[in-house]
Amino acid sequence: MITQTFAVGLAALLLVGCGGSSKKELPPAELEKITAEVELERVWKRNIGVGQGELYTNLQPALDGLTLYAADANGRVVSMDRDTGKVNWQVKLKEPLSGAVGAGGGRVMVGTLNGAMITLDENDGSELWRTQVSSEVLAPPQTNGDIVVVQSQDDKLVALDISTGEQRWIYESSLPVLTVRGHSTPVVTLHRVYAGLASGRVVALDARNGLPVWEQRIAQPQGRSELERMVDIDGQLLLDDDTLYAATYQGSLVAIDAESGGIRWQRPASSHGGPAVGFGSVYLSRADGGVQAYDQNRATPLWTNEQLLRRQLTAPVVFSSYVAVADFEGYLHLLAQTDGRLVGRVRVDSKGVRATPISRSGTLYVYGNSGDLAAYQLR
């Protein structure tokens, strides 16, 4: 059986659609005027080449210590001072990139459409090694300082030696007939590798040998058509203390005991992005553009904001006392973490934002589709 993945146009449609319905789609919600309670000030801006390019990539910047890394679809990788945006180094690789950026253990890691995994030295961007995996890499490779873990489009997980690129182990799973183009980013700790699969399962593997520690199904395919039965986990998993959070498309939002794999709580949900945690709450951008908050311990719904429906939101991030999301028109929105009301807005990039913003030490880093990377702080 031949596995099919979504082309660019259909993947974009799914981001605004509502679970494969044949009904005519409603347009994105118009932005309502708001009374700004907080203001965002741009601290610096840096252009990173062509940004996301023409394909439906989702290249994510990465922070490692005081250094911010970003890449564009044409193969440019840039290292910057996170406080000033000053460039430390930049290199231009010969291959187009589709999975970026991973950083850690003195390495900067990117993946290509042709299935190459490339590792650079964090000090000067020089190439240390590259290796071929089984298919295109659509998520940033991750490391624990000993291994680099790559999740490829065919749902294989490969662990590579961080020094040599030699394969340590491989984990294979069966891929559904139809999947959304994209992949969840693995979480790699010293002893465990956690990954979300296109089948709606979350697995925990032993980081030393790739053997399964536990496997948990968090969504059950429903419906008659393959489109209706998709339950991909495409957003990043979130490990918070001993709890692993994950969300699926047309499935659920779950909190899992990271050690045993037992489900602590589960809520029906459909999302292309991963959850965020802060202030005792879990936040999620739904596939239809709603933003929801749940009590972190009891999963009780706290609030829902539906003013941004069908605006193709990024995953949420906790920023200061707020929750931040960006949309397909390039607007960055701040929501109050207490009740979800919109309290601030600024336009970052007229070509939109797909990459989830990064929040660190009072600064919000936002990478626009056109290639502009900007840092914002509250005024």
UniProtKB/TrEMBL annotation:
InterPro entries: BamB, PQQ_b-propeller_rpt, PQQ_rpt_dom, Quinoprotein_ADH-like_sf, WD40/YVTN_repeat-like_dom_sf. It is found in: Cell outer membrane. Gene3D superfamilies: YVTN repeat-like/Quinoprotein amine dehydrogenase. Residues 74-304 form the Pyrrolo-quinoline quinone repeat domain. Signal peptide: none annotated. Its main location: membrane. Keywords: Cell outer membrane, Membrane, Signal. The keyword Membrane applies. Pfam families: PQQ_2 (PF13360). Part of the outer membrane protein assembly complex, which is involved in assembly and insertion of beta-barrel proteins into the outer membrane. Part of the Bam complex. Belongs to the BamB family. This is Outer membrane protein assembly factor BamB. It comes from Halopseudomonas formosensis. The gene is bamB.
